[in-house]
Give the backbone structure.
Amino acid sequence: MTHSLHRCGKHQEKDYVWLLYHVKGVNDQNLKQRYQKSLEIAEAAGAVNWGDVKSGPVVTLSPEEIRTRLTDKSRLRGAFSSLTQVTKFLKDMKAEDLGVCVIIAGPLKEVLHSCRESGVEPHTINYSLGVFGKTELLADDSTLAITTMCGHHMVPDGIVEKYYRKVQKGKIKPEKAAHKLAVMCPCGIFNQERAAILLKEFAETADSEQKQGGRK
Amino acid sequence: MKIDAEKCVGCEICLDCCNVGAISMQNEKAVIDRDVCVECWLCYRNHICPNDCFEPTPLETPGDIFKHVLSDPTETSAGTGIPGRGTEEAKTNDVTGRFDKDSYGICIDMGRPGIGAYMRDVEKVAMAVAAAGVRFASPKETPLSGLMTDVRTGKIRDEYLDVHVLSVIVEGTCTRSGFAEALQAILRVAKEIDTVFSLGIVSFQRDDQDEPLFRLLAENGLSLPTRGKVNVGLGRPLYTG
């Protein structure tokens, strides 16, 4: 699946997805212990959200609950907010040599820089070429910047638009609205820190436009 | 999915939550058009309704089951045993070597972002790329192939053509020498569908950039990719080509 690949909009340099995978019968021996260690590394690097789609993300469950529910079929995912975090994560994962598949999705230039800094070698890249077809059906760019952070689209356009309006009217803080949106993404790759920035900026822009007699 | 009409108070809160616009108001009650609904269960799982009016309905047909499994990421595909939409594409290529130095992976993410796709459009795309030399992943690797009458043509069984999903991946490989033809087929068929797709091209490589691929993209009027999903080669045993 490619639920982490096709993000769009502003501040992508503050948004990186990490994924940990395995293949049954190939690199799944003692998987639970190896994933436990990987999670320690991701948390130490500063992951802002993470989870297992079968149990949920840390914005709804405690890390201990997710760890307890790990199985030999789990696949773990999460989000970082800076390249420094990505580089630390990759360096430490390389040093531990746990043998699980590690994937980083994000702006290419930055991710490849982080690979060089941490001493890992890109093996395979899935390049995002964008959206084709009836693109006139798509939501506006501000909405897509947030909804595409849950690539499974479990954060619907209508809810994001509702929170944009609420933040603009001062009915909810951007950080709280971002958290509520993150809760809807079951696998933990929604970056609530970037979402809060986007919500805040949109509200400020809309305010400014209204003051100038623009968008109502 | 259905809405319990007796419990529904007509507050309209749920209208914002449906990705595919399957919920509407009739006689001051919210109702779900089950042909449009993709059974993602987002409304139910998130308790969108203050009165908990959403109730999953039995998934009675193979089409119902398929659309639920593909649209609800908490489900696992029975054919592949993989959660989400049942594929791993580049994510495990460091140990599987599904994509090698002579091939490119093609990941056509139908219905994304957030539009949904009918399987008749999925079939159009699958048949177009198959005719251009794309070979689909096996049913053990991707759920869509299990619905095809013939994986060489991309024809999908007729009983699935009106099924609506939130998204599904048309996933396969083509030779590097045949990539230009496959890409042109993808760009042509994009004009013939009533939905959108997000396109990913998977490249096995041992350095930073795939210059031949970038040249081909430029020759076909496409921008160079600025985003990527990078498998950093820490899986063991490592596939080295």
Q: What stands out?
A: DSSP finds eight helices and six strands in chain A. Chain A touches chain B through 75 residues (CB under 8 Å). The longest strand of chain A covers residues 124-133. Residues 3 and 152 of chain A are 6 Å apart (CA to CA).
